[in-house]
Task: inverse folding
């Protein structure tokens, strides 16, 4: 029997061309059942960005990613290869690590079982008399991990399709930014009482900039970016970097060797499902939206600059003005998304898209492609 919440007939108006289309109806942002379907069909079935390679540069460096498929440890091995493991002990399942740090072995806080960085179980105190127990049968459970240009992605399913298929034309489009040469310089974290799609959608349109960011960024103009693969984008056309507040007279120099498209403005992408990579002329930053519940999302904002910029005298000082911009604008975005979540709870019908909301429409349709009955 067809579940009407996932019946494609219900969403025909979203499927129309942009200027005739309706938005997703309110229940897509408020229904626990819709959210559960998204977890199963979207977050457990797609590559997810978790961080940058330089955040785990040396053997033993690790960080934890607390995603909807369970907590994952990303760690660099003695052979310099990155691995992703389920953050769960093979004895009685305790969580192993929190946050980020550096370790020689992964030691369980409960009964002290210990694992090498390659996942093998090497320390099992008090287990000598246990019958038919071979520690080699109990390594950490490994998850698929791939990287592109320093960006680390993990996948919760066995044998996923290659990451390159997911990224499609993104790899070529941003080649002149040389993202592999970029270095992470800092992150901000936010907890927001809003559905993950409201945050991702807000990051995909410049229509709100003249109102929500009236006192900070001001009005921005955007244009369509052609994409193939599992991503969408808009270009905010501005020869100056939009990574600092308007009127900031001394932003960092542009990245050497940018091609014509890259010089034209900042490209605000969304790698489906929920990671915005922004390629500006002087830096790149990400917004990683990590759903916690239907109406709650954790956001990590990370910033990267070319090594040549990081070496400039006064870098740390100047960087403060970039973080000031990210802090201010993100707080404004988060507040309006929380207001929108409140409004969606008492909404009854879908709304309509503005012409500038082409990438929001693309995300809505991608979500429907994943969750509706096939
Ligand atoms: S649960 Fe990890 S050692 Fe017991
Ligand atoms: Fe915004």
Result:
């Amino acid at each position: 029997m067809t579940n009407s919440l996932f019946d494609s007939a219900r969403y025909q108006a979203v499927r129309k061309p942009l200027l005739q289309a309706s938005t997703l109806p309110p229940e897509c942002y408020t229904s626990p059942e819709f959210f559960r379907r998204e977890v199963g069909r979207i977050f457990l079935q797609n590559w997810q960005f978790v961080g940058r390679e330089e955040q785990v540069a040396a053997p033993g460096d690790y960080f934890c990613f607390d995603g909807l498929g369970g907590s994952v440890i990303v760690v660099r091995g003695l052979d310099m290869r990155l691995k992703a493991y389920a953050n769960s002990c093979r004895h009685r399942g305790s969580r192993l690590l929190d946050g980020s740090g550096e370790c020689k072995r992964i030691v369980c806080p409960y009964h002290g079982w210990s694992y090498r960085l390659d996942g093998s179980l090497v320390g099992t105190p008090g287990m000598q008399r246990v019958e038919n127990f071979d520690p080699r049968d109990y390594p950490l459970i490994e998850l698929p991990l791939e990287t592109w240009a320093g960006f680390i992605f993990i996948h919760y399913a066995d044998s996923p399709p290659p990451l390159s298929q997911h990224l499609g034309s993104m790899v070529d489009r941003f080649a002149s930014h040389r993202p592999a040469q970029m270095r992470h310089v800092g992150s901000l974290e936010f907890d927001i009482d809003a559905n993950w799609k409201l945050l991702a959608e807000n990051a995909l349109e410049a229509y709100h900039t003249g109102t929500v960011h009236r006192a900070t960024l001001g009005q921005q103009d955007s244009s369509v970016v052609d994409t193939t693969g599992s991503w969408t984008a808009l270009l905010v056309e501005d020869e100056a970097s939009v990574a600092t507040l308007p009127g900031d007279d001394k932003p960092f120099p542009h990245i050497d060797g940018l091609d014509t498209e890259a010089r034209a403005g900042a490209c605000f992408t969304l790698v489906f499902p929920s990671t915005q990579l922004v390629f500006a002329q002087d830096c790149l930053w990400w917004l990683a939206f990590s759903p916690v519940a239907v109406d709650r999302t954790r956001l990590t904002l990370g910033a990267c600059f070319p090594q040549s910029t990081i070496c400039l005298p006064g870098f740390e000082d100047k960087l403060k003005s970039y973080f000031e911009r990210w802090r201010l604008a993100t707080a404004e975005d988060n507040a309006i998304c929380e207001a929108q979540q409140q409004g969606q709870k008492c909404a009854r019908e879908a709304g309509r898209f503005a012409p500038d909301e082409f990438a929001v429409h693309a995300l809505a349709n991608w979500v429907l492609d994943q969750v509706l009955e096939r």
